[in-house]
């Protein structure tokens, strides 16, 4: 029996148990550990909800951090253990089924928010203590006039025993008194502290308002002020504090002293900085991550007039092969090396390099000359990738494709739109062979976005009935009779109108939709062939046949033969009613396993046509081993025959192909016939059938029936 929790509530309670066991030893509470666990359970539930909400809200993390202070978890170790527990177990027990990387990123942001809420609550608690001390100090000063000895003892006890640093100075800034807590914070001696003047304690990161508030206080224009301030210790290190300075007045209300109270926030600040760094930097390479990059990009896009930005989007070529062959550890080492090289390219002001994820990196440059600098940056990146990377005793060649986008700041484009344009451009560089960079082209972006939209719409277009089929006649060159038709699928897109197969068939191949789409085309075409055979008098010229294109993806599908047989049987037609067209390029170098389905279909009586013959540079001797009965000659061989006389070289080529085909008992069909002279010359050369605009453009099935009737009646 499994000991693991079963349901969400069980996993939530398990997380709360682990959390309470980690934090309870460093918590100042009178509760038992099980009671403390029950106190943490609603906080764990709130973290779980924030982790899985559609929109991230940092308020939940801040509220949980503040609740820890209310639960007396004020020791810094309690916060550290809490964050370690959330980092290790929150996604594991409360993440559900969401994407792991997104949940980890959200967990890191929750930790940052918890630390901020903890710090805020602890500061408010400390301020309350400081206010009590200040009131006590003021009260003690007032009592001096009435009972000097008693008030002095009370004030001294409070002054020396306070956990926060306290110092008293006159209105000129001369330090008069400091308590032990303040001495420990600065790490100096009391004599050394008293030798200092308040106005000497400047720091490079002081806000401009710090010393303005100080001047207003010593002039009696304000009673107190509160700021975050850094101080230099005697050893040169930096002390960060929450500083509250109050004005002490004498019995007549005149300004007399200034009282400073300091809370040491150095460790808390370092923790926040660490959490911020981890949330904005890639754990593997140390580069800025997507979050920080988008912050910088948005800032660059919103820069003032006259400023420009330039962006390089890099994707490594063939990185998946390295991961698959050498393992992910080797791939990670390669990414680290690439990151180091890219970092060396971005050294000028306004330049940065970030890792978006996987093997994708971006480089950003800003400034008036960004249009020139981004080209130089892309060239530097390509140059640093030239040297091989040595991993596990192997020298790996690193190649990359870069998309470059540049433009003026202050435009209407969002960071997401700029990055999408760079991504599209990068893939254009990759499609051109890789190891190069390309500049963004708005028209190319628009085409790519359109292609993406079509790809997204494809899966539902078939269900919505947006596809239809047009038919182009196949004509016997000997007697001019219609022998059949080729089925050509079209897409009636709601926005783009009628789209030809060249617009969506490659996308269907890429997405795998070509298999169900191809089966639908085959079903519709075979049914149409049955209707033609029922309506057309076979005695006139023989039965009509339907030609259907078969994609390479369909050719390798395991159900090709079974689907074809089922479709023919369902339509009630014999196999000789169907001709499947396969492009020559799909069969170049085909092995017996690939040809086996075609051979089975050919043995059943289905004709197989070798489409676009002459464009694949195949060995003519291969024709003997291919189960084809028809060669469809590509139109590039017959274009010159549209005029009379034809190019004699093309005539000789066509004549040779026809002679070879006939010697192998193959029929020859010619595509793209557009003139009568072309048709006549092809007839003389011995071609069997033809199709093209000379006879008819692709159209509805009734049009083919009309042509067939005309031919049958003369």
Automatic annotation (TrEMBL):
<dbReference type="InterPro" id="IPR001610">
    <property type="entry name" value="PAC"/>
</dbReference>
<dbReference type="InterPro" id="IPR029787">
    <property type="entry name" value="Nucleotide_cyclase"/>
</dbReference>
<dbReference type="InterPro" id="IPR000700">
    <property type="entry name" value="PAS-assoc_C"/>
</dbReference>
<dbReference type="InterPro" id="IPR000160">
    <property type="entry name" value="GGDEF_dom"/>
</dbReference>
<dbReference type="InterPro" id="IPR000014">
    <property type="entry name" value="PAS"/>
</dbReference>
<dbReference type="InterPro" id="IPR035965">
    <property type="entry name" value="PAS-like_dom_sf"/>
</dbReference>
<feature type="domain" description="PAS">
    <location>
        <begin position="151"/>
        <end position="221"/>
    </location>
</feature>
<dbReference type="Pfam" id="PF00563">
    <property type="entry name" value="EAL"/>
</dbReference>
<dbReference type="InterPro" id="IPR035919">
    <property type="entry name" value="EAL_sf"/>
</dbReference>
<protein>
    <submittedName>
        <fullName>Bifunctional diguanylate cyclase/phosphodiesterase</fullName>
    </submittedName>
</protein>
<dbReference type="InterPro" id="IPR043128">
    <property type="entry name" value="Rev_trsase/Diguanyl_cyclase"/>
</dbReference>
<dbReference type="Pfam" id="PF00990">
    <property type="entry name" value="GGDEF"/>
</dbReference>
<dbReference type="InterPro" id="IPR001633">
    <property type="entry name" value="EAL_dom"/>
</dbReference>
<feature type="domain" description="GGDEF">
    <location>
        <begin position="307"/>
        <end position="442"/>
    </location>
</feature>
<feature type="domain" description="PAC">
    <location>
        <begin position="225"/>
        <end position="277"/>
    </location>
</feature>
<feature type="domain" description="EAL">
    <location>
        <begin position="451"/>
        <end position="712"/>
    </location>
</feature>
<dbReference type="Pfam" id="PF13426">
    <property type="entry name" value="PAS_9"/>
</dbReference>
<dbReference type="InterPro" id="IPR052155">
    <property type="entry name" value="Biofilm_reg_signaling"/>
</dbReference>
């Amino acid at each position: 029996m499994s000991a693991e929790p079963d349901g969400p509530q069980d996993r939530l309670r398990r997380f709360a148990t682990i959390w309470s066991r980690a934090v309870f030893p460093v918590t100042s509470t009178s509760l038992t550990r099980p009671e403390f666990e029950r106190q943490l359970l609603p906080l764990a539930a709130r973290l779980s909800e924030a982790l899985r909400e559609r929109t991230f809200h940092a308020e939940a993390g801040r509220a949980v951090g503040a609740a820890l202070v209310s639960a007396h978890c004020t020791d810094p170790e309690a916060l550290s253990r809490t964050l370690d527990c959330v980092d290790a177990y929150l996604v594991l027990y409360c993440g559900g089924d969401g994407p792991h990387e997104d949940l980890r990123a959200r967990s890191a942001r929750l930790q940052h928010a918890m630390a901020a809420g903890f710090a805020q609550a602890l500061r408010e608690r400390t301020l309350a203590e400081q206010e009590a001390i200040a009131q006590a100090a003021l009260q003690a000063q007032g009592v001096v006039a009435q009972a000097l000895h008693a008030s002095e003892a009370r004030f001294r006890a409070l002054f020396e025993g306070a956990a926060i640093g306290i110092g008293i100075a006159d209105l000129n800034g001369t330090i008069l008194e400091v308590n032990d807590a303040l001495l420990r914070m600065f790490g100096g001696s009391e004599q050394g502290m008293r030798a200092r003047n308040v106005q000497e304690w400047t720091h490079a990161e002081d806000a401009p308002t710090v010393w303005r508030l100080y001047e207003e206080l010593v002039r009696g224009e304000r009673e107190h002020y509160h700021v975050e301030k850094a101080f230099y210790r005697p050893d040169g290190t930096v002390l960060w504090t929450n500083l509250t300075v109050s004005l002490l007045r004498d019995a007549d209300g005149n300004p007399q002293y200034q009282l400073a109270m300091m809370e040491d926030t150095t460790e808390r600040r370092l923790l926040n900085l660490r959490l911020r760094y981890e949330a904005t930097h890639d754990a593997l390479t140390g580069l800025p991550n997507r979050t920080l990059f988008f912050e910088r990009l948005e800032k660059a896009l919103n820069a003032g007039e006259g400023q420009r930005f330039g962006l390089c989007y890099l994707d490594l070529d063939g990185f998946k092969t390295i991961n698959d062959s050498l393992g992910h550890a080797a791939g990670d080492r390669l990414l680290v090396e690439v990151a180091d090289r890219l970092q060396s390219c971005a050294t000028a002001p306004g330049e940065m390099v970030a890792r978006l994820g996987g093997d994708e990196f971006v480089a950003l440059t800003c400034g008036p000359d960004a249009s020139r600098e981004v080209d130089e940056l892309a060239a530097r990146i390509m140059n640093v990738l030239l040297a091989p990377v040595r991993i596990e005793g192997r020298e790996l060649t690193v190649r990359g494709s870069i998309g470059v986008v540049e433009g003026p700041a202050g435009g209407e484009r969002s960071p997401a739109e700029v990055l999408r344009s760079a991504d599209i451009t990068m893939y254009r560089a990759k499609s051109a062979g890789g190891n190069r960079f390309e500049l963004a082209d708005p028209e190319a972006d628009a085409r790519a976005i359109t292609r993406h939209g079509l790809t997204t719409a494809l899966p539902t277009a078939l269900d919505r009935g947006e596809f239809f089929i047009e038919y182009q006649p196949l004509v016997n060159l000997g007697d001019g009779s219609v022998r059949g038709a080729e089925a050509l699928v079209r897409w009636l897109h709601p926005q783009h109108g009628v789209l030809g197969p060249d617009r969506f068939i490659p996308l269907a191949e890429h997405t795998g939709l070509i298999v169900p789409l191809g089966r639908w085309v085959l079903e519709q075409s075979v049914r149409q062939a049955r209707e033609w055979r029922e309506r057309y008098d076979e005695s006139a010229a023989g039965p009509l046949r339907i030609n259907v294109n078969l994609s390479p993806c369909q050719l390798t599908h395991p159900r090709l033969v079974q689907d074809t047989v089922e479709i023919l049987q369902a339509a009630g037609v014999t196999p000789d009613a169907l001709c499947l067209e396969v492009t020559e390029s799909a069969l170049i170098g085909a092995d017996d396993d690939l040809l086996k389905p075609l051979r089975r279909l050919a043995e059943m009586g289905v004709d197989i046509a070798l489409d676009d013959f002459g464009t694949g540079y195949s060995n003519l001797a291969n024709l003997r081993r291919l189960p084809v009965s028809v060669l469809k000659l590509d139109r590039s061989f017959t274009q010159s025959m549209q005029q009379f006389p034809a190019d004699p070289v093309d005539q000789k080529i066509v004549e040779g192909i026809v002679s070879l085909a006939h010697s192998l008992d193959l029929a020859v069909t010619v595509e793209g016939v557009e003139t009568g002279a072309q048709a006549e010359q092809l007839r003389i050369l011995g071609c069997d059938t033809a199709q093209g605009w000379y006879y008819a453009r692709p159209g509805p099935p009734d049009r083919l029936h009309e042509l067939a009737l005309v031919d049958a009646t003369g």
